[in-house]
Specification:
Layout (H helix, E strand, L loop, with lengths): L1 H20 L4 E3 L10 E9 L2 E14 L4 E12 L7 E5 L3 E4 L2 E4 L1 E5 L6 E8 H12 L6 H21 L7 E2 L15 H9 L3 E5 L2 E2 L4 E2 L10 H4 L22 E7 H7 L8 E9 L5 E8 L2 E6 H8 L8 E5 L3 E7 L7 E2 H9 L4 H8 L4 E5 L2
Parallel strand pairs: 1-21, 2-10, 13-20
Antiparallel strand pairs: 2-9, 3-4, 3-5, 3-6, 5-8, 6-7, 8-9, 11-12, 11-21, 14-19, 15-16, 16-17, 18-19
Helix pairs in contact: 2-3, 2-4, 3-4, 3-8, 3-9
Length: 374
């Protein structure tokens, strides 16, 4: 009897230890007849005239039928406006440069019937992530935060690949998608985070989630319908983000001059704006409806439109505003749209020894992890 109890106790400890250290990651297969999600097309820019593609050593140029049409050493120059069909550049040393960015993979030039030629970097998804993660967060952050960011970035990218299968590119290299700084942004620590989570995504009902992320939620995240409209998303609910306080822009304030306020909202024809009042807030405390009153009348606008009009000075919608001197004082919390994972919140959780699974489940409740199988 004692031996049985001892064996049961040992097994219980083993199961507990395994349960604490093992994460169930199920396989995920892309939808039937979808494009391969192992390759991504990144828009680097648009060219209308002369451009240069740089490399180290031999650069080969191929046409749309994959026939070699030109070779050069180190630099190939051309006039993009004269291009009639797509061409592809490949470097002997597997890296190419366009303007200030150096990238892995190939560069495609895709002329348009109207408008400038698209400059598109085509490369393996996992290599793309090597440059995205350190472009989005510092490589010096805790490894669990880097892994969480890697999975967010991969999930976002795969969803874009699946949704844009008929477009000329999947993502942009800017904050319009997620920041992609190219080969020179890569760092061994973020590379490890990507490689340790190879192929892993966050999924909900077998689909890659809308893996939105932002800099700092100011203590509480927001739902997407309050920012962009549309339907509620089950896993993008309002959650507390207590560890944001360690990050940049947890608290901030800006003074906006009377002249700038009048200029920015001149289309409302309110004359000189004398007061700005918050009328309602969302459940997360973000400004929903705001009223501007001037010498010639008043107008109500959405908080998101107010922020978009003023731009960078209004770092998030968690703010209050009051008249002060010859202008308006805005005091706020957080930075960014506030939907999904807070990067500084993830940093704070990792500092408190939460692992990447716990971080992701906190910001995307109800989701699971899955690994791309083909």
């Amino acid at each position: 009897m004692i031996k049985k109890l001892t064996l049961f106790f040992i097994l219980t400890i083993i199961l507990f230890q395994v349960g604490c250290s093992t994460v169930i990651i199920r396989p995920w297969t892309p939808p039937y007849k979808s494009r391969s999600v192992h390759e991504i097309r990144v828009l680097l820019g648009k060219a209308e005239g002369d451009l240069q593609i740089r490399g180290e050593g031999i650069i080969s140029v191929y046409d749309a039928n994959d026939l070699l049409i030109k070779k050069g050493i180190d630099i190939i120059s051309l006039d993009a406006s004269r291009l009639k069909a797509p061409i592809r550049f490949v470097s002997q040393n597997m890296s190419l440069g366009y303007k200030s960015i150096k990238v892995r993979g190939a560069i495609h030039l895709i002329p348009q019937n109207q408008g400038p030629t698209l400059v598109v970097n085509v490369l393996p998804l996992e290599e793309y992530l090597l440059a995205v993660v350190p472009s989005e967060v510092p490589y010096s952050w805790p490894m669990e935060a880097l892994k969480a960011q890697a999975i967010c970035a991969r999930t976002y990218a795969v969803r874009e690949i699946l949704n844009k299968k008929n477009a000329f590119y999947d993502v942009e290299a800017t904050t319009n998608s997620q920041v992609y700084g190219g080969l020179e942004k890569e760092h061994p620590l973020t590379t490890k985070a990507v490689q340790d989570t190879t192929g892993v995504m966050a999924v909900f009902e077998e689909n890659p989630i809308q893996a939105f992320f932002h800099s700092n939620s100011g203590g509480k995240t927001e739902t997407p319908e309050n920012i962009w409209g549309g339907k509620k998303v089950p896993y993008l609910s309002v959650v507390a983000s207590e560890f944001d306080s360690a990050g940049d822009n947890f608290y901030w304030k800006e003074t906006i001059s009377q002249e700038l306020i009048n200029s920015k909202f001149s289309n409302l024809k309110l004359g000189e704006i004398q007061s700005i009042q918050v009328l309602s807030r969302t459940a997360s405390g973000r400004v929903d409806l705001i009223e501007l009153s001037g010498t010639d009348g008043s107008s109500r606008i959405r908080g998101k439109d107010f922020r978009q009009t003023l731009g960078a000075p209004v770092r998030s919608l968690r703010f209050g505003i009051q008249k002060e001197g010859n202008g308006f004082l805005i005091k706020g919390m957080g930075s960014g749209h506030g939907v999904g994972l807070s990067q500084w919140g993830s940093f704070g959780m990792a500092k408190e020894n939460y692992n990447y699974v716990e971080i992701l489940r906190h910001y995307y409740p109800g989701t699971d992890l899955a690994r791309i199988t083909r």
